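Format notes (please read before filing issues)

Several people have asked whether sequences and structure tokens are stored in separate files. They are not. Every record keeps both together, in the order shown below: the sequence lines, then the token lines. Line labels are part of the format and must not be stripped during preprocessing.
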Amino acid sequence: MKKTLCSILISVLLFTLASCDRSHLCSLDVLCSNENASIVVDGEKVNSFNFSSEGFNHQPLENYSNIDFTNTESNVSNANVNKFEITSSTNDTYNLSLELVETNKYVVDFLRVGIIIDGELSVYKYYDKREELYHKENDPDSILHFNSKSEIFSELTVDFSAGETKEIVIFIWIEEAELYDKNGERYTGWADKSYNASPIMLSMEVK
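Then the structure lines:
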């Protein structure tokens, strides 16, 4: 009887510990399908590359207003930062698209994506007409909206001169301001659905 009781207690303890340490994946696939362009990562030209980070209890939960988008070398926020370059062999205009892969509603609801090209920042979120975001500083009017629940943008054009290289920086995070009700009270415990937003899987194509 004592052995059975001990086994049950150990099982419950292990389950509790396992449920506390949750693994969160943030993945970005970048593909170049235009023969005149190449992706450059760490000085090496490639046609495709995967940026991936995963860790226990390391969810990219952050507030828009806390992110220093000028600090792309060592960002101190929880946002996931990915950097690469695009180089062109000729004068051309390339089209960038970004999609969510195998998404669920929690990723759509809470995800924010920022992209910097030519020093210009664009931030995207999904538009929900029923949404009441309490912290307006985290939802300025300049924020753009996803094309759909599976497509963030599809026609982001970038002009290149022959031999030119441009840096692309992508910030990915779960917006904490989305986790407040209309009275400014933060959801906690089981009401905090942000933990259901993992994994975050994105796919970008340069065409």
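For reference, the curators noted about this record: Residues 5-20 have pLDDT under 50 and may be disordered. The longest strand covers residues 165-175.
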